[in-house]
């Protein structure tokens, strides 16, 4: 049974930073791209960022480019999302996803508010 467990969410003021983590169980981790999603108006979930298995290629939603950075540590089976210059519109539950599988994390709440 594969599990993805997110952590690092919380309440932060506009302009602040948070780092989300997603720890994965199982031996698959280094072979699979990983992604972060969040809900968006008119969509079930919006792709925030993704990263290939070895970490060489990353992609970002236009709304977070230049502010968020996705990275991974395959030795720790963990993917990260560094979020800087946070805005109120970044408020959402952030979900970790193993690309091409049915494996999702339970989500971690990020609230950006003064």
What attributes does this structure have?
six-stranded mixed sheet, 10 strands, 0% helix, mainly beta, four-stranded antiparallel sheet, globular, 114 residues
What do you see in this structure?
With about 110 residues, this protein is an all-beta fold. Helix content is about 0%, strand content about 50%. The chain has strands at about 5, 10, 20-25, 35-40, 45-50, 60, 70-75, 80-85, 90-100, 110. A 6-stranded mixed β-sheet has the order 2-10-9-4-5-6, with no helix packed on it. Strands 1-3-8-7 form a 4-stranded antiparallel β-sheet, with no helix packed on it. The chain is globular. The relative contact order is 0.32.
Write the layout of secondary structure elements.
Blueprint lengths: L3 E4 L2 E3 L5 E7 L9 E7 L2 E9 L6 E3 L7 E6 L4 E6 L8 E7 L9 E5 L2
Parallel strand pairs: 2-10
Antiparallel strand pairs: 1-3, 3-8, 4-5, 4-9, 5-6, 7-8, 9-10
């Amino acid at each position: 049974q594969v599990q993805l467990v997110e952590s690092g969410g919380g309440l932060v003021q506009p302009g602040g930073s948070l780092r989300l983590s997603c720890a994965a169980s199982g031996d698959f981790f280094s072979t699979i791209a990983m992604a972060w999603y969040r809900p968006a108006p008119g969509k079930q979930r919006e792709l925030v960022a993704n990263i290939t298995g070895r970490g060489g290629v990353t992609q970002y939603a236009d709304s977070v480019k230049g502010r968020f950075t996705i990275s991974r540590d395959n030795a720790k089976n963990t993917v990260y999302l560094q979020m800087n210059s946070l805005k109120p519109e970044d408020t959402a539950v952030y979900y970790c996803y193993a690309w091409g599988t049915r494996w999702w994390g339970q989500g971690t709440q990020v609230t950006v508010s003064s």
